[in-house]
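User: Reviewer 2 asked us to show a designed sequence for the structure in our supplementary figure. I'm pasting the structure tokens here. Could you produce the per-position amino acids so we can include them in the response letter?
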């Protein structure tokens, strides 16, 4: 069998920009050739690289390339939550408004494109330590650590506005997309305040339904006095109280 040329420092001379799945296969192929040549050290290196790529791929949503529910669950129950900074952590559940109507009117291929673009729009403007994950179906989660409540609300509402103002008509005439957001923030100001990610997710989910009931295309959150939505409800001079 012909020998393959591999860099002496254990890094294969791989072409730039190779998609992850192709890169995975390439590492596996090179590992197989090196193993037949008895070069077990470099074969192991490429097998490990293939494993790392496969693991990274298992934490990504195949449609939107955002993180998936598995990654979200691992992060929320991992050490990062226990050691988050004093300002606290915000979790926002985001749902595309009337998404079934998008699929029924324009077809599932357009619906898939909408999901991909919404995921990209949600990721824009997030702090470096924050991330977007597809929670399921047309629902996403934004996790924003080390942030106070006021900034978390601004980030969530900026995302809502970004989606509403996106030029959706360039995809299909008549297409418009908005999102509703339920934002739950937990502070670490009290030293004995334990992280309870499941409880925080349930709060975000309840607030998401509040945003839906208030007319959609809104962010619902809870301040010190009550639950509120932004922008203002049509039947309220200030905010919608739960």
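Assistant: Here is a per-position design you can include in the supplement:
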């Amino acid at each position: 069998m012909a020998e393959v040329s591999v860099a002496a420092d254990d890094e294969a001379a791989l072409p730039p920009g190779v998609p992850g799945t192709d890169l995975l296969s390439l590492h596996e192929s090179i590992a197989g050739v090196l193993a037949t040549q008895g070069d077990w050290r470099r074969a192991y290196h490429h097998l490990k690289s293939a494993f790392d790529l496969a693991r990274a791929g298992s934490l990504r949503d195949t449609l939107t390339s955002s993180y998936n529910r598995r990654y979200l669950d691992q992060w929320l129950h991992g050490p990062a939550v226990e050691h988050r900074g004093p300002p606290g952590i915000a979790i926002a559940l985001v749902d595309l408004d009337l998404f079934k109507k998008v699929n029924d009117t324009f077809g599932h291929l357009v619906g898939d494109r909408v999901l991909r673009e919404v995921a990209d729009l949600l990721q824009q403007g997030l702090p470096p330590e924050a991330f977007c994950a597809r929670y399921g179906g047309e629902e996403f989660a934004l996790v924003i650590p080390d942030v106070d409540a006021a900034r978390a609300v601004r980030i969530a509402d900026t995302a809502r506005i970004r989606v509403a103002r996106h030029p959706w008509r360039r995809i299909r005439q008549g297409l418009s997309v908005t999102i509703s957001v339920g934002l739950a923030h937990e502070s670490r100001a009290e030293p004995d305040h334990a992280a309870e990610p499941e409880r925080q997710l349930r709060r975000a989910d309840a607030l998401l339904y509040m945003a839906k009931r208030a007319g959609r295309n809104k962010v619902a959150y809870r301040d010190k006095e009550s639950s509120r939505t932004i922008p203002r409800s049509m039947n309220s001079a200030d905010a919608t109280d739960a």
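For the response letter, you might also mention the following. The longest strand covers residues 89-96. Residues 1-58 form one domain.
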